[in-house]
Amino acid sequence: MKVIVDKGIKQFAELIPLLYGLDEINIRYLDSFEITRDSLDDTEVLLIRSTTKINSDLLHNSAIKFIGSATAGFDHIDTKYLDQNDISWCYSPGCNSSSVVHYVMSSIGYLIESNFFNTNDSVGIIGYGKVGSKLSSALNEVGIKNISYDPFLDLENLCCIEDIKKCKLISLHIPLTRNNAFPTIKMIDDIFLEKLEANILINTSRGEVVDESSLLRKNSLIYISDVWRNEPTPSKDIIDYSLISTPHIAGHSHDGKINGTINLLHEIFDYLGHDKDIKIANLKVIKRFFSLEHISNYPKKISDYVKTFDIYKESNHFKSVCEKEKDNISEITFIKARSQHIYRRDITPQ
């Protein structure tokens, strides 16, 4: 069986030779830009990151039967096309949830140090999934009031969207959706902003959930964003406008990437039909190989998040790299900045 794997999937190539039950697999490692229709040939399995767009242009008349993505989201995958063509697929939900929480908490810590936010202010969380719920726990641990909204969940602790708008700061943790009961594309638009009491917005979801032109017109909202419309060629105006700008690296901790790799391996074991004994043996190998150690339990002080991840330094680097660009940031500049992000480990609960 032939498999193509994106070279950027962390430590996949180093781990594969140590695992059992993979003797029949012929793996080819490619850079993201090398994954094209011509490169697939008679490949059966394709393992990717978010930089590869999975659609009919890439897969038409190919032999692909399984797509795996080492990412927490899947808006780069045309799932309808895959389902219609009996191509199995998976992604890695929650793999970098702690990484994103670290990013948001570091941002809030920076806002406190810069006198834009006070520990007596409240945070409104839109989206109470893996990231939103962890963020709420982290804020509770440091004593910052917070409320959450999620129209798809029926939980007593959730509130309405109008209450969220009254908070000092709003943090977005939602997928990009278009055709459902609560579409999120351009959710933050002129109408949303019109009656907004919050003056700080953090976006680590997807650039398209915010109407960036509405933000620029309002011109009074503090915006911190890791995601942008038209990535990897975002508008320079919105990057310059944002207090903190980063090149889609909120989830790019060491642990977040490793979690994506581990999830893909689990999915491959299932796809190959490995029996229970082989799975157990492989899980032991994976555990020994990574020996992941991180800071357990959420810190009691928000300054600990800032110490372990300097969000302002990350932003300064990105803005300096983009300084000479005009109108839109070039793809080369964006990808270069993204590859130079600060190395960090997760802060997670036990």
Summarize the structure in short.
The chain is α/β, with parallel strands linked by helices.
Observed structural traits:
globular; single chain; Rossmann fold; 5-stranded parallel beta sheet; 350 residues; alpha/beta; 6-stranded parallel beta sheet
Summarize the structure in words.
The chain is α/β, with parallel strands linked by helices. The protein has two domains: 2-93 and 254-290, NAD(P)-binding Rossmann-like Domain (Rossmann fold), CATH 3.40.50.720; 97-251 and 299-348, Rossmann fold (3-Layer(aba) Sandwich), CATH 3.40.50. It is 37% helix and 14% strand. It is built from 15 helices and 13 strands. It has helices at 12-15, 37-40, 56-59, 79-84, 97-113, 130-141, 161-164, 190-194, 212-218, 236-241, 254-272, 276-290, 303-308, 311-322, 331-339, and strands spanning 2-6, 26-30, 45-48, 66-69, 88-90, 122-126, 145-149, 169-172, 200-203, 222-225, 244-245, 295-296, 347-348. The chain has a six-stranded parallel β-sheet with strand order 7-6-8-9-10-11. Helix 8 links the parallel strand 8 and strand 9 (200-203). Helix 5 crosses helix 6 and helix 14 runs antiparallel to helix 15 (331-339). The two termini are 39 Å apart. The relative contact order is 0.14.
